[in-house]
Amino acid sequence: MKNIDVCLTPELLHQYDLENKIVVVVDILRATSCMVSGLANGVKEIVPVSTLEECKELQNSGYLAAAERNGSKAEGFDMGNSPFEYMDEKVKGQKVAVTTTNGTLAINKSLSAKEILIGAFLNLKAISEYLKNKEEDIIVLCAGWKGKFNLEDTLFAGSLSHQLKGDFEFACDAPLAAEAMYLTAKNDMMSYMKDSSHAKRLAKLNVVKDIEFCIQESIYDVVPYLSGKSLLLK
Amino acid sequence: MKNIDVCLTPELLHQYDLENKIVVVVDILRATSCMVSGLANGVKEIVPVSTLEECKELQNSGYLAAAERNGSKAEGFDMGNSPFEYMDEKVKGQKVAVTTTNGTLAINKSLSAKEILIGAFLNLKAISEYLKNKEEDIIVLCAGWKGKFNLEDTLFAGSLSHQLKGDFEFACDAPLAAEAMYLTAKNDMMSYMKDSSHAKRLAKLNVVKDIEFCIQESIYDVVPYLSGKSLLLK
After folding, report:
1. Per the CB < 8 Å rule, is A148 touching B12?
2. 20 to 30 A from A140, CA-CA: which of A91, A158, B78, B90?
3. B102 at A interface, C-beta within 8 A
4. How many domains does chain A fold into?
């Protein structure tokens, strides 16, 4: 039977063989939530890059440039890392280059996979439906925080594992644990998240509104995937 | 405030600074459960080593040698990795050298810590009481399975984090998540564990009795610690 596995941080990714697998990259707060929101609201394409320099270069060749480091917008760029910025009128129809502390790095570490998808609570149903019919094994890659485990990405991994349970076998204990956490948390996600380190970090930056937005389930019916260097919609 | 952190697998240990910290090594199935059982039942000292060769050498100089690889006893050694072997009359008063797939490696990766303790559900209360009064920060190091996350070690990390919550702050999301998992699982640990990959692996080897034994809470009032190369009791 095909299976689903969860990689809890990019620093454990060397333990996984990505060949012929579908990788779902998740960085709930906030990179992949932004990507889903932007593409669902008319952004033409998004190019994830690992460094500020690459992002700057693309800015110079006509891209809107979004850059976040340690939760805040980096100086000299057009946008930071809030989903609301990605829904702004001025972004519609545009191409966006983006670099973030964790999320874009996770994408660029997954390039040997057969297919790379972008997951968030915002498109949970769309991505589950898309994956249900696939024959390949799946790895959910949690972006984490600077190489460490984080709560919100693991909760998403748990929710996706739960959705796909009937069609995919759990490959190890990580999907099992993530699913248990999600089932405990799902009826009151916000209060469950309030003690998480990243929510605390962001609360200091006044982005509680972003968190409330990012934990909404299945409000967008889109499946972003990496095509060449760009994220587009299926 | 002093804090407690959880390292989910030894492959993430490079992210943690062990200096001046107390590390609690845990490998519930079954290395640290064996160590606690043995020392509580009269084993004189236990020397954890990383390789079969080192274990053999100590066997040649008078130690009882316990060696496990992939869940089974390695050929040519006196004992495997069952807690019941460590309670046998013939082990009383003896010195034991031990190497296992995950647990002894985790101990030997922690040598830069100020103090290394051996934790298991079997001595949960004793180790919590001992740690409550310490001033140092604590890292619970889960031995995992071949570098990957596992359920039972994380559940122990969660139980210890829960016990120490009043006296230690959670350093990141890992203790938070581990505690949530433990609180979900604690009233029916055996059925919660039945789907775990290691329990399945061991069930094939007919050691369900070992699992039932290892998930008992606080039946031994001992705190094993590393002194030089040996595990002794506080």
Report:
1. yes
2. A91
3. no
4. 1
The most distant pair of C-alpha atoms in chain A lies apart, rounded to whole Å, by 50
Q: Of B40, B145, B94, B71, whose CA–CA distance to A177 is shortest?
A: B145
Domain that holds residue A33: 3-225
Q: Is A142 on the interface with B (CB under 8 A)?
A: no
**Enclosing H/E stretch for A177:** helix A173-185
Instruction: Indicate yes or no: CB of B184 within 8 angstroms of CB of A180.
Output: yes
CATH of the domain at A118: 3.90.1560.10
Q: Which of A173, A195, A198 is closest, CB to CB, to B196?
A: A173
What was the ipTM of the complex prediction? 0.90
Of A148, A170, A172, the CB nearest to B148: A172
Cα–Cα distance, B95 to B93 (Å, whole number): 7
Distances (CA, A) of B18 to A122, B129, B182: 39, 21, 25
Within-domain flag for A234: no
- Contact call for A177 and B197, based on CB within 8 A: no
- Contact call for B12 and A15, based on CB within 8 A: no
pLDDT band with cut points at 50, 70 and 90 for residue A2: very high
Q: What is the pLDDT of residues A83-125, one digit of tens each?
A: 999 999 999 999 999 999 899 999 999 999 999 999 999 999 9
Q: Which residues in chain B have their CB less than 8 angstroms from residue A197's CB?
A: 172-173, 176
Tens digit of each residue's pLDDT (9 = 90 or more) over B41-61 = 999 999 999 999 999 999 999
Cβ–Cβ below 8 Å for B148 and A9:
no
CA distance A172 to A169: 9
Using CA coordinates, name the residue in chain B closest to A169: B195
Evaluate whether residue A233 is within a structural domain: no
Query: B147 to chain A: which residues are within 8 Å by CB?
Result: 12, 15
- Helix pair angle (B124-132, B151-164), 10° resolution: 40
Residue B146: CB atoms within 10 A of its CB come to 14
- Strands A224-227 and A230-233 come out as antiparallel
- Is residue A69 reached through a cis peptide bond, with omega within 30 degrees of 0 on the bond before it? no
- Angle between helices A151-164 and A124-132 in degrees, nearest 10: 40
Residues in chain A: 234
